[in-house]
Amino acid sequence: MPKYDRNFTDELRERLSIVDIVGRRVPLVKKGQNYWGCCPFHNEKTPSFSVNEDKGFYHCFGCGEHGDIISFVMKSENVDFKTAITELASQAGLKMPDYKPKPAAQIAREESYYQIMSDAANIYQKLLFDTSGAHALEYVHRRGFTDDMIKKYRIGYAPKNNIIANKFINVKQDNLLATGMCRRGDYGMYDFFRDKLMFPIFNARGQIVAFSGRSLDGSEPKYINTTDTELFHKRRTIFGFNFARDAIHRANRSIVVEGQIDAIQMQCNGFPETVAPLGTALTDDHIAMLCKANRNIVFCFDGDTAGQKAAARACDIVMPFIRDASDIRFAFVTGGKDPDEVLKTSGVDAMRKIIDDATPLVDFLWHIANAGFNVSTPGGRTQAEKFIKQKTDKIIDVHLRTEYEQEYKQRIFNNWHKWKKQSQNIPRVDIPTVDDITKNTVIFIVNKYPEIAERYGDFLATLNINFDENVPELNMDEKSSEKFIVSLKLQKWLETLHIQRKNLMSKLLAGENVRDKINDLDEKINIAKQKIDMLIPE
């Protein structure tokens, strides 16, 4: 078989979850670190087929079959390599490239890029501990970085001169330019990063593919990153992921913060599962990578406007990736602080409380809808409902999407329409309290079928029932439930008519001319009785 371009197949493996791919054909149950099911390649009753989400492979302990998402599609659907990756590319939303053997020159060129990056990191780190980098070292120490942390993350200092252009004078210029480390000007090569605190950016395999430079003089932007290259694509690279990968697996979640310094400080202070996008520009590729490692994510952003917008964008992007076992939450650091500052001023316990108190996705989306639209008006409620539906429609799992829709229908009815409070302003005749059996039945119907509650909200508000009480499940479908509410409404209306007739009879005995009103009431009473008889035949 020809040697195909690994960049594309690696991207398929990064974007697609092997649990999702295998799970479409094999029912899987998570036990310990792996997922288990009955092997699709031989007959068995006891599951011996294991799928490892983190490593991206499957293995059957019964027949010995082993492979990744590509080999699984090939074997399970009996198709060739190209057909398998074409199908997977469609699922990943990627365009199929024209495959051809990877030239030896390209392999050598990429190896040269990696070597240039690694050598540059060594130069930068050496300069950080040199007199020329004293101000940068003082800054990074002031931010709470120890020398061990600096060495682990290979943090360094890029001076104001052209250190890289001069040090790599014997390297092929095209290769140096291709790394993004240098640019070509009117007077020759010059360094892209100058007077910056340098953070190497690693790929998932721990190879340096780019750099992020932080300004030291307060100038904006605070961070500049290597432009996209053959090795580096910002939208598909997560800072700190290579260090956090195993910790994400152990912690059963990832934490996403806004900046590199926040990510490093979190990793070194009790939250090793923390990562950061390069800036707040979170992408679906980032989410795909994180969900492949673990579908439980806590987004921890600053509480300012930029952080709120970043969280709202994360909420939108993550919707297609959630599954019934996902736990997506949103935490905010308020008071103008960030995770780094919280850790330094308030300690690990304060940061842990912020993470532990994070808002679940279902509540955060509800908050966005309430904050973004005027839900006190019919038009605002309509806009908010359309907004929520637009988001929930992105959920791929049909059953999970239905659950979200039902949840928001109940919230819309109970919160936006405020029919319990509105009833106080509606002229009505006081109705006696219903018995406990009727009350429990009504509570069940309201919570089970919010559409019915919406249609008869004005009437239900007159019953003075606390609909937040827990009641037993009843064997009532939607049709019989609506019939019960209509019947109850008619009975209450009949009681009201009888009360009114009794009052009119008292006036008649007192000499008032109310005979016509009594006749009208008698006609209404007969109609109400006929309707009840139709609903509840003898």
What does this structure look like?
- 51% of the residues lie in helices and 12% in strands.
- The protein has helices at 6-15, 18-23, 69-77, 81-92, 104-128, 134-142, 147-152, 163-167, 173-178, 241-251, 260-268, 284-293, 305-318, 339-345, 348-356, 361-372, 378-392, 398-416, 419-422, 436-448, 450-455, 457-461, 478-509, 515-535; strands at residues 29-31, 34-37, 49-52, 57-60, 66-67, 156-158, 182-185, 188-191, 196-202, 208-215, 223-225, 254-256, 274-275, 296-302, 327-333, 359-360.
- A hairpin with a 2-residue loop joins strand 7 and strand 8.
- The chain is elongated.
- The termini are far apart.
Tell me the major beta sheet: 5 strands, antiparallel
Low-pLDDT segments: 419-433
Shape: elongated
The helix/strand class is alpha+beta
Helix content, binned percent: 40-55%
As laid out across the biggest beta sheet, the strand order is 1-2-3-4-5
Q: Strand fraction band?
A: 5-15%
User: How many strands appear in the DSSP assignment?
Assistant: 16
Average of per-residue pLDDT values: 84
Give the number of helices: 24
Distance between the termini: 79 Å
Alpha-carbon Rg, integer: 33 Å
